[in-house]
Amino acid sequence: MTITIDNIARRFGQYAALDGVSLDLPEGEFVALLGPSGSGKTTLLRIIAGLEYAEQGTISFGGEDVTDMPVQNRGIGFVFQQYALFRHMTVAKNIAFGLDVLPRRARPPKAEIAARIDELLELVQLPGLGGRYPSQLSGGQRQRVALARALARNPRILLLDEPFGALDAKVRRELRKALRQIHDRLGITSIFVTHDREEAFALADRVAILNLGKIEQFATPAEIERAPANEFVREFVRDEIDDKPSLAVVHG
Amino acid sequence: MKRRDPLQAPRPVMLALLGIAVAYVGIMLLLPLAAVFVEALANGWEAAEAAIVEPDALAAIRLTLLVAAISVPCNLIFGISSAWLIAKHDFRGKEFLLTLIDLPFSVSPVVAGLIYVLLYGAHGWLGPLLDRYDIHIIFATPGIIMATIFVTFPFVTRELVPLMIAQGRAEEEAALSLGANGWQTFTRVTLPNIRWGLLYGVLLTNARAMGEFGAVSVVSGHIRGETNTMPLHVEVLYNEYNFVAAFAVAALLALLALVTLTLKTYLEWRHHDALAASGH
Predict the structure, then answer these.
(1) What CATH number matches the domain at A1-75+161-252, 2.60.60.30, 3.40.50.300, 1.10.287.110, 3.40.120.10?
(2) Residue in A with minimal Cα distance to B273
(3) pTM listed for this prediction
(4) Rounded to whole angstroms, what are the CA distances from A136 to A128, A139, B111?
(5) Integer angstrom CA distances of residue B114 from A160, B100, B110, B131
(6) Do the Cβ atoms of A84 and B170 come within 8 Å?
């Protein structure tokens, strides 16, 4: 599914979180929204999902205008930074949620849902953990469950908000690889938000660098490194390489 | 020498604190509770039983249960809606609403009762109007129920708001992104997440609804067999020097509270795994 973001703007009070953002994503592309805190990247992702509204501009999926479509009907899968797993449900119930809430006519039979849960647990490499509760899992496992849950209804688009933000470096690398493999296997258009240059460049086909609610550059990692569009991009990309530790502290 | 856990207080301090706690609970809680039952059974089981099955006492028990059966669901529904509104939404006047909901905690129950008399009494603002349609609120069951709702108003909301704020909106957002509609999100995600807080809120509301004296005393009019709730009936009996009967009814009231407490403990024990898993 292609995604067309046209001139999106959103203010919070006096502060412009997004100031006329446009992006075009072809079918099956894996895109990173990269930027410092407060650059508007998460707001943009939430507007694409329908969890936040845009005061101006339009969002289209595959040519269809979805700007005023409620989040439920957009056919997206969303992965939250803090997982947002349903704490009172088992892993299996969490994953099945999207299917369980379908109207009776559209809902697959129980056996089919069970098979789908197993398939998804296999996909995220957590076979046999369906009976656990989220609190009994590690951070990395929780994020894998969140990913499986988001994929259960075969979304047209996968959106991930700082999916590795709360994880330690080793798990982060593992999960990054797993996510890229899953994306390549399923081929769904995916967007993830990150403030980590290295992560964005390692994972994405193309990277959109945001600053103060505007896109500074939207290109492949190689292009950005070869020809930064402006001073901000040059600084942002270099800073991340030079003083990673201090930046890591700044961004928490 | 045996090494000590650095985070534990020294043994003598612990023992002293434990002693104080036991003495305090014993003197303030257990002794009076025991006294109620001892006094109730002072003339034997039959005397206590007779005091309870006597028609006026039965009427008081029925009225108390009726009042609780109506005021608890009312405050349950209002409590959930207001807590949901306050915890999960941003709007102007939120703090004011929260303060307003706390009002019954800061206003004396007697004052609360008087307000209702002032409004709905025979000489009150709305009294003559209601009288014309033959609706009686003061010195009747509706007034008792309204006064009870007033004093038990904040319990459910107060129990739920901090819980719902702590849980945030992320799980609801996740449910919506997975295709759930508003009602499904509420019943499958919001409600299950607050069920334990809700249970405590309901138990507190129920205990207070059955035990409320001040506000109910003002609006009830103390008509024996008609507008006396159990606490009022206890007072009437006590003032008539009918101590055994007074304590018998009081013991029953205490027993009702103990039943709710036992129920809560049982539920906690029964769902211990789910409680631990959900991080309560």
Answers:
(1) 3.40.50.300
(2) A133
(3) 0.82
(4) 14, 10, 51
(5) 58, 18, 6, 18
(6) yes
Number of H helices, E strands in chain A: 9, 10
List every span in chain A annotated with CATH 3.40.50.300: 1-75+161-252
The alpha carbon of residue A7 is apart from the nearest alpha carbon of chain B, in Å, by 24
Count interface pairs A-B at CB distance under 8 A.
Answer: 79
Mean of pLDDT over chain B? 89
Backbone angles phi, psi at A8, to 5 degrees: -80, 135
**In this structure, what DSSP letter does residue B9 have?**
P
The C-alpha atoms of residue A233 and residue A227 are separated, in whole angstroms, by 9
Residue A238: what pLDDT? 79
Q: What interface predicted TM-score (ipTM) does this complex get?
A: 0.89
A147 contacts A124 by C-beta, under 8 angstroms:
yes
Over residues A81-89, the mean pLDDT reads: 93
Q: In what order do the strands lie in the sheet with A15-25?
A: A15-25, A3-12, A56-61, A64-65
pLDDT in tens, A175-221: 898 899 999 999 999 999 999 998 999 999 999 999 999 999 999 99
Q: Is the dihedral of CA A108, A110, A116, A121 positive or negative?
A: positive
Tens digits of residue pLDDT in A136-153: 999 999 999 999 999 999
Q: How far does B180 lie from chain A, in Å, by closest CA?
A: 6
Q: Buried b / exposed e across A223-246, counting CB within 10 Å, b at 16+?
A: ebeeebeeebbeebbeebeeeeee
Instruction: Determine contact: A232 vs chain B, CB below 8 A.
Output: no
Rounded CA gap, B158 and B7, in Å? 33
Q: How far is CA A19 from CA A44, A216, A230, B24, B162, in A?
A: 10, 12, 18, 64, 35
CB pair distance less than 8 Å for B176 and A71: yes
- Per DSSP (E only), the strands in chain A are 3-12, 15-25, 30-34, 56-61, 64-65, 76-79, 157-161, 189-194, 206-211, 214-219
Which residues in chain A touch residue B177, judged by CB atoms under 8 angstroms apart? 49, 51, 71-72, 76-78, 150
CATH superfamily of B67-227: MetI-like (1.10.3720.10)
Q: What mean pLDDT comes out for the span A33-60?
A: 94
A81 Cα to chain B: minimum distance (Å): 10
Q: Given this model, what pLDDT does residue A242 score?
A: 52
Task: Give chain A positions within 8 Å (CB) of B182.
Answer: none
Average pLDDT of span B257-279: 74
Biggest CA-to-CA distance, chain B:
85
